[in-house]
Amino acid sequence: MLKQWWPSPAKLNLFLHINGRYANGYHQLQSVFQLLDFGDELAFEIDNSGKIALCTPIEGVEHDDNLIVKAARLLQQHIKVQHANRDLSALGCKIYLKKRLPMGGGIGGGSSNAATTLVVLNKLWHGGLNPNELANLGLQLGADVPIFVMGDTAFAEGVGEKLQPFTVVPATYLVVFPDCHVSTQAVFTHVDLPRNTAKISANDYQFDNTHNDCQELVCELYPNVAKTLHWLLEYAPSRMTGTGSCVFAVFKDAAQATKVQKLLPEGSISFIAAGLSRSPLHQLLDAQPD
Ligand SMILES: C[C@@](CO)(OP(=O)(O)O)[C@H](O)COP(=O)(O)OP(=O)(O)OC[C@H]1O[C@@H](n2ccc(N)nc2=O)[C@H](O)[C@@H]1O
Ligand SMILES: Nc1ncnc2c1ncn2[C@@H]1O[C@H](COP(=O)(O)OP(=O)(O)O)[C@@H](O)[C@H]1O
Questions:
Q1: Is 11 one of the catalytic residues?
Q2: Is residue 287 part of a domain?
Q3: In a designed cystine with 148, which of 115, 134, 247, 275 is the match (CB 3.0 to 4.6 A)?
Q4: Both 12 and 155 in a single domain?
């Protein structure tokens, strides 16, 4: 039988302000998480083995460290506890991944993979968790997971988990990966990271009156990020996403984005994507009710 492939989209942080730091070291931030129509895909074959197996390993990531496997195990455990009266000892699954998103690029690939796993397995295993419960479970895996579980482009606060659906002017993005992996943890523990940007109201958001507090530091640490950003800025408003390393340029339409993509230096890794208000995963789920 043909596999059902489920989308696992990328996101961009259209801006990222750091407003302070919590006692546990996590940062208090504000951001717009823009979901994209480009990403990885996952397929799931549930079985009664009780085992979780990712059949398409990612080079450099141990099976048990993969956020997909961690998400499946976390949900498996949660369902077992919630449904103690049902014999769920045999909940198992084989998982397949088509990886397209560069890792460590600030476009949320790992978190999105974890979210798609939580959402789809909850459906296939008849877990019965509601979206808020799934998002809370996802938060244990990463601050970025809830946005992908909820599935709406959003204005985010807290550590990134307080979300309100947010309307952004439709745009096409040229996203360039400067061929370096930035560790989110390394950026957030850096002494030179600014952490005192004043809070804004969601209504006041505009691309031009916001910025990314991580950008200057990452540009200093990774000259390739600085080079890519300066190149893109010649053509369109551009910014780094998340803690890097990807940089995006904003265009009105795909034709303009394609023109600039063609001018990129040879060997550049890039993709073009449209901004979406609703995740492609959730669009597919909405079209396929139980
Ligand atoms: C800041 C963002 C913006 O999108 O960066 P990117 O990872 O996308 O670049 C994300 O929210 C990241 O989310 P995610 O990558 O899931 O973060 P986690 O795994 O929870 O945390 C990675 C590390 O970043 C730090 N961290 C993360 C989020 C946050 N609000 N404050 C932090 O200080 C934590 O110290 C942790 O050690
Ligand atoms: N399924 C996964 N996809 C991508 N990265 C993963 C996955 N599982 C674990 N990781 C680890 O998470 C790190 C961050 O990945 P990713 O989410 O793609 O980047 P970012 O947080 O910068 O957007 C990777 O370098 C990798 O070691």
A1: yes
A2: no
A3: 115
A4: yes
